[in-house]
Amino acid sequence: MTELVFGYHATESLIRQRPGHIQTLMVQADRNDKRMQALNDLAQSQGVAITRCTKSDLDAVTSGRHQGVIARLQQGASHEAAGQTSESDMMAMVVAAERPLLLILDGVTDPHNLGACLRSADAAGVTAVVFPKDKSADVNDVARKVASGAAETVPWVRVTNLARTMEHLKQAGVWIIGASGEVPETLHDQDLTVSCALVLGSEGSGMRRLTRESCDFMVSLPMAGAVSSLNVSVAAGICLFEAVRQRRGK
Hints:
Strand order of the largest sheet: 7-6-5-9-8-10
Low-confidence stretches: none
Order of helices and strands: EHEHEHEHHEHEHEHEEHEH
Distance between the termini: 49 Å
CATH architecture of the largest domain: 3-Layer(aba) Sandwich
Strand content: 15-25%
Shape: elongated
CATH class of the largest domain: Alpha Beta
Mean pLDDT: 88
């Protein structure tokens, strides 16, 4: 199955980061605006093959909102092109970082939410995003589109045993901080200036028992309204940028 990346920001990031992994760039022939011309110029400068198509041709390739551009990836190039890293390389990044900040997602099965989390993680400058191989969304074409290029820039790793990975992070000096709506301590009370990983579960069932038990601390997001929880990608953004706020103030 041919892997696709579609949408302006996702394809632009891919061309800049991994042009050699693109088989061909399919662009809408009747799009002549400055934005598309800039993308065409970038692709040509990177030696990327361009195929001009009608909008109906692009619509037939993907049901997603392609914005007039779709990148077909070379066979076997999708994972590397998407920013995936190995667990060992991720641990090396953690050790090398002065104060690593990680995002751990347990049970996020919607690729839209995963893509939004990657986008927030990139904006917050996280060291890496970690999520399990089982019962989790993958970084597919939908997730990449929502991530708006972040899937190609922020390191992410799928692990076999999430609890074991969390233990390895602890041994490397990383504090594991889980988010849950059932605890009295709030996010704002927690020191996030230390080396830490923020853990979020799914909206439905939250994080799994072993994941929760592997956390050093549990915090909640203060909720003033009638709803009891937030979308996981919204919660991830709030948690990450509270860490950014605290770190900038120290």
